[in-house]
Design a protein that fits this description.
Layout lengths: L9 H52 L3 E9 L2 E7 L19 E2 L2 E2 L1 E3 L6 E8 L8 E4 L6 E2 L5 E7 L5 E6 L5 E4 L16
Amino acid sequence: MFRNRLGFTLIELLVVITLIGISLTLAAPSWEQVSQKRRVTNATEQIAAFLSVAQSEAQKQNQHVSLSFNRSGDQNWCIGTVLALDACDCTETDPASEQYCVIDGASTRIEASSFQFIHLIEATDSQPTGGDSRITFDPIRGILQPAGDKLQLTFESANGDFKLRLSITPTGLLSICSPDDGQSIGGYLTCAG
């Protein structure tokens, strides 16, 4: 007489473990792609929010807010803001320094070390002032000063597969688009021009 046995046979367990291993092997590369895409999207959106806050701070405080940026390499960059016409130095790390980026006592700078696996591959100020990389938000409408200035920052994933561009137009409009070079990210329009 046969007895009911609970459990699995050794062969059944080996088949299941083999199928799980094959599934993980196939899923790992696509998971890395999703992760890289998400990192670029997250970093670009966080920086857009940072710039949007600076713009609204100019209107709220009814004072110019200057934004400075420094890029000495894909993985060595910073952006800082200050309530003044003269920009701060986003590379300055000493809070006691006059060049430290601060608004209402709070540090207002972000840097590459906050965004691992993301590269800033382009930072373009259309009208650099005296060699400085800075823009200023007007306190009335939040438009860029000097008139006609615009800013473009292009971020790329560490593996180089994905890019997003953050732009501020002369009218102060912030937008994120995907450059048309085969490294697009769904959900974003293709950059014009």
